[in-house]
Specification:
It is a single chain. The protein has about 450 residues and is of the alpha/beta class. The protein has two domains: about 110 residues, Urease, subunit C, domain 1 (Roll), CATH 2.30.40; about 325 residues, TIM Barrel (Alpha-Beta Barrel). The chain is about 30% helix and about 25% strand. The protein has twelve helices and 19 strands. Strands 1, 2, 3, 4, 5, 16, 17, 18 and 19 form a nine-stranded mixed β-sheet that branches. An eight-stranded parallel β-sheet has the order 6-9-10-11-12-13-14-15. Strands 7-8 form a two-stranded antiparallel sheet. Strand 7 and strand 8 form a beta hairpin. The longest helix is centred in the middle third of the chain and has 18 residues.
Length: about 450
């Protein structure tokens, strides 16, 4: 059935204007006034912003880590994402050394199949760059539509790759047109600092931050950038948390290098004092990189406003406090790293960014949707409201307030790191390819309705 969105304020990365939108067969077919909405269902958007659906470039659903598995799977995670205005995610597909890449990709397809309620794609982890892997990457990028590769510079003896692997991946990515992502922390240094802390009996959650200093993030970011320049490739630094990393990215971009950066709401709004909460409460805030000193927040906001950082992902990696985070009682190294962010990413960025004049309304759309689509080969199918684009649309009421709480969120986890925060603005309805997933703040979607998105190769935005 056709849908006719009327009387809303359309907001894209470049424009804000009053217009109606006509949707037919999953696509936007007309934008303007005096549209022919005959036989269409009328959706009144009076007083609402009409945004392109959010794209979360950084999620971990149904992912094994630290002896357990994230508490959100592709059903609960994508359902929560939809409640938060996100209509597409790109999840991380982990690989195992010695196994074909396609085996891991098949595993991740199986995790999502029949569960995802919104569209999704995959990033592919590279931990070993031998001849077989480098050859197989060709088929992955060209045939599978997985055009972004992830290299961990941390988690020694678990996920971490060495510099040779990173460099070979960058060289191959240049040949294939893939975008390489790095988790930038110096894993060797962290390993040493962590062992020293444990030997001294420093086991509380806050030592997770003390053993992962910002200097180690800055160094790894700079090293990854140097290798990218040497390979003449393209780099995307995930979850940037501190001034040291921002400075390295800014320097690279001033030189015209193909380097991009992402931060997350947790680094914009929370700080190291959350890890210092009494008892074991700080474990709720253990993720990597760790929360930093509060003054870093101003640096990150400025970097977003000035285009040094381009996107805001959630790094959603949810573990229950009870039974999962508690695995690290008495030893912070055993606390599963990650937090539940997917549902609150967009409302937090609007409330704390747009409503407080730290970023513009159009920048909000750009960093939560458009720039992600451009960097990761989804534009213009996704990431904008334009004739011919997928009808992934969010109706947003900027006048209401809501309180973030575990009592009302839809993530499958027993706490919320932003508990009690009152935010300005909320998501009212969400359409994915023209069909309602959220309607008047009620879930009306279907498990399995989400489709895998084959993405095009990297093109400089």
């Amino acid at each position: 059935m056709k849908k006719w969105i009327r009387n809303g304020t359309v907001v894209t990365a470049s424009d804000t204007y009053q217009a109606d939108i006509l949707i037919d067969r999953e696509k936007v077919v007309a934008i303007g006034s005096n549209l022919d909405g005959k036989d269409a269902e009328v959706i009144d958007a009076t007083g609402y912003y009409v945004f392109p659906g959010g794209i979360d470039p950084h999620t971990h659903l149904d992912m094994p880590f630290g002896g357990t598995v994230t508490s959100d799977n592709f059903y609960t995670g994508t359902k929560a994402a939809a409640f938060g205005g996100t209509t597409s995610i790109i999840d991380f597909c982990l690989t195992n050394k010695g196994e074909p890449l396609h085996s891991s990709i098949s595993t991740w397809h199986e995790k999502a199949r029949g569960k995802a309620v919104i569209d999704y794609g995959f990033h592919l982890m590279v931990s070993n760059a031998n001849d077989q892997v480098l050859e197989e990457l060709g088929a992955v990028v060209r045939n599978e539509g997985i055009t972004s590769l992830k290299v961990f510079m941390a988690y020694k003896n678990v996920l971490m790759a060495d510099d040779e692997t990173l460099f070979k991946t960058l060289v191959r990515a240049k040949e294939l047109g893939a975008l390489v992502q790095v988790h930038a922390e110096n894993g060797d240094v962290l390993d040493y600092l962590i062992k020293q802390a444990i030997a001294k009996g420093q086991t509380d959650p806050v030592y997770h931050a003390y053993t992962r200093p910002p200097e180690a993030e800055g160094e790894a970011t700079g090293r990854a950038i140097a290798l990218t320049a040497l390979a003449d490739a393209q780099l995307y630094v995930v979850h940037v948390s501190c001034a040291e990393a921002v400075r390295r990215i800014a320097e690279a971009r001033e030189k015209g290098w193909n380097v991009y950066g992402e931060t997350c709401p947790q680094y914009l709004l929370l700080d190291i004092t959350d890890l210092q909460k009494p008892g074991f409460e700080g474990a709720k805030y253990v993720w990597s990189p760790p929360l930093r000193e509060k003054w870093n927040q101003d640096v990150l906001w400025s970097a977003l406003k000035n285009g040094i950082l381009q996107t805001v992902g959630s790094d959603h990696c949810s573990f229950n406090f009870s039974g999962q985070k508690e695995l690290g009682l008495g030893d912070f190294t055993k606390i599963p790293n990650g937090g539940p962010i997917i549902e609150d990413r967009m409302r937090l960025l609007f409330s704390e960014g747009v409503a407080k004049d730290k970023i513009s309304l159009n920048q909000f759309v750009d960093m939560t949707s458009t720039k992600v689509a451009k960097l990761f080969g989804m534009f213009p199918q996704k990431g904008t409201i334009a004739v011919g684009s997928d009808a992934d649309i969010v109706l947003f009421d900027p006048t209401v307030k809501c309180t973030i709480s575990v009592e009302t969120h839809h993530m499958n986890v027993d706490y919320n790191p932003f508990e009690g925060m009152v935010v300005n603005g909320d998501i009212i309805s969400v359409l994915s390819r023209g069909s309602f997933v959220i309607r008047n703040q009620q879930f009306v979607g279907q498990a399995g309705a989400g489709r895998f998105v084959k993405r095009s190769t990297f093109a400089r935005p």
